[in-house]
Amino acid sequence: MRKIFFTAITLIFAGFLIACDPAANTASNAGNRPANNAAAAPAADAAAIETEIKKLANDGVAAILKNDTAALDKLWDDKYVFVGPGGAVETKAQRIEGLKSGQSKLESLSYDELTVRSNPEGTGAILIGRATVKGTNMGKPVDGQHRFTQVWSKTKDGWKSVSGQVTPIAAGTAAKPAEANTAPAGNANK
Known about the structure:
The protein has 190 residues and is an alpha+beta fold. It has helices at residues 2-20, 46-66, 69-75, 92-101, and strands at 76-83, 89-91, 105-118, 124-137, 140-141, 144-155, 158-168.
């Protein structure tokens, strides 16, 4: 009788420990958790994403300089939008048509100071850098240095640029993106 009592107490105690240990209880609670548990997903390889995005951005530079609209059609998502240095917004179709017609033509374009930030899932990335450019965009000169931002999204067809934006760099404001205002939000005036 003593042996049965001791075995029963041991089983009850072991059951209690298993029920209270979240790590040991993962299989029994699998149906109670959301299907896309971010903590369970492995983190994306940020260095590999950075390398790939920089390569694609430089492929875009080469395509623009060669006026290779077929290559740009593959790099830019169908919903791509571009905000030019004057603030005008262009769709993918408008950008490609501007290149085909010659209304937008760059004689030279180079990127430097590239910084890539990707999300933990590896499905999105932001590229910030400096562009040195000579040419025209929508018939207006765009010579000089510009700070640019590109937003990239991982699609079933690979990485696609979904948005681009450029801003002329005014004299005395050429700090690298990582050195730009680092004050936490809400403390910019302190």
